Amino acid sequence: MEISLQQLIFAFGLTLFAGLSTGFGSAIALMAKRTNTRFLTVSLGFSAGVMIYVSFVEILQKSRELLSAEYGSSQGNWYAVLGFFGGILLIALIDKLIPDNPHEVRRVEEMDEQTNRNRLRRVGLMTALVIGIHNFPEGLATFTAALTDPALGVAIAIAIAIHNIPEGIAVAVPVYYSTNSRKKAFWLSFSSGLAEPVGALVGYAILLPFMSPLTFGLMFALIAGIMVFISLDELLPAAETFGEHHLAIYGLIGGMAVMALSLLLLY
């Protein structure tokens, strides 16, 4: 499958945008006196809604189409389903090996409740490392989708960018309180998002010799599984931690509605 330089630049730009939104999250944390929990709850629910809807309605469907064209309808559907649950297994294993949850949002006001600065510094550094590891497959997902379907790539990039905002907060708050340096807190948070474009580049370099409809079919199935798992295991629980259950659900439904409308308008 031939890919132009313009496609590569566009896909990488989207991945960079999604990854570096962690810096936006850190800016929110460092400028705000209190965390806007209602905004974060709706945003996380919205991101989950976009990712779940697009995974089942668009990405998994594309995987089935590509694999069915290669292996026939029955066998292609089997491979798509296996790839979907393979993606869930992959991200679940990453969570098992790296148990700290990068989506556990720390509020600005919690800084006043912490006294051990050395511990906070370690928390911030470890959170940045964990976020980097989790962001790696997300970067590959955005990059791969954008290569084959720019509109779909944009939707995925926006959803991932939204859910990267609380990751930036999770890094910035403990680092700022332990160092009293907004600059250090911002740059460490900002840098943790670089794992997504790095994931895109490494993934592309590995997959380059194997780029074909079959490769993209399998990748789409994996991506759908990864995104559904992230939504159900991380985004919605993170939204619920603020005690705003209905806001999270409203955000979820809103995200699905916006994604459905955008797909109807685009196609």
Give the SSE layout.
Blueprint (H helix, E strand, L loop, with lengths): L4 H15 L1 H11 L5 H35 L1 H25 L19 H32 L1 H30 L2 H11 L2 H13 L5 H28 L4 H22 L1
Number of strand elements: 0
Query: Judging from the principal axes of the Cα atoms, what is the shape?
Result: globular
Which whole number gives the mean pLDDT?
77
Instruction: State the secondary-structure class.
Output: mainly alpha
Low-confidence stretches: 111-116
The portion of residues assigned to helices is over 70%
Count of domain modules: 1
Beta-strand percent range: under 5%
Distance between the termini: 23 Å
Number of helices: 10
Radius of gyration: 19 Å
Order of helices and strands: HHHHHHHHHH
Largest sheet: none
Plain-language structure description:
Helix 3 packs antiparallel against helix 4 and helix 5 runs antiparallel to helix 9. The chain has 267 residues and is mainly alpha-helical. The relative contact order is 0.24. It is built from 10 helices and no strands.
List keywords for this structure.
10 helices, 267 residues, mainly alpha, 0% strand
Brief account:
The chain has 267 residues and is mostly helical.
